[in-house]
Fold:
Amino acid sequence: MLPWTGSVRFAGQDLRGWGPREAARAGLVHVIEGHRVFTQQSVTDNLLLAAYDLPRGERMARVEEALNFFPEIAEKRHQRGGALSGGQQQMLTVAQGLVRRPRLLMLDEPSAGLSPVLVDRVLAVVAKLRANGTAVLLVEQLIEKALAAADRVCALAQGRIVLQAATTEADLPRRLERAYFGQEHVTALHA
Structure:
């Protein structure tokens, strides 16, 4: 659903009327939930598709740059995307976003369907991106892992922000639960 009022701003620009291509060129990249890869294309070709509008001479360098974050799929660069495990497909999906060298990388449930080891692997990449100056907006249900990867947290309930805090604040997991479910649900859950 598109907003009918208000505005969405990124890097000082109003995004109303922008399409995905303009947003990606400005450095705003959204990696949607699930393993969205071209299953019949190789890992390399999946990444080249993400780089389709970059200067030809720059494409392979960007692909290699993205693969450096995920050695697990770099060694499978010639395999079809569909031959990768679910976790490797998720890594490939994130790598597709990294090809764009985003200023803001929005990750929607990157842990969905992953083993704990692979969740940690993807979140380690998030930490490395942050350390290198890339802003990351992480939508994640694994609260403890998300808090470890983030500086700030916002909780949404029914489309409204119900809590904003620094991740260093005390008792944050309980506060998030209370904000999201409301006091009555928390009491019922622990009864």
User: Anything to note?
Assistant: The chain has two domains: 19-150, 151-191. Confidence is low (pLDDT under 50) at residues 184-191.
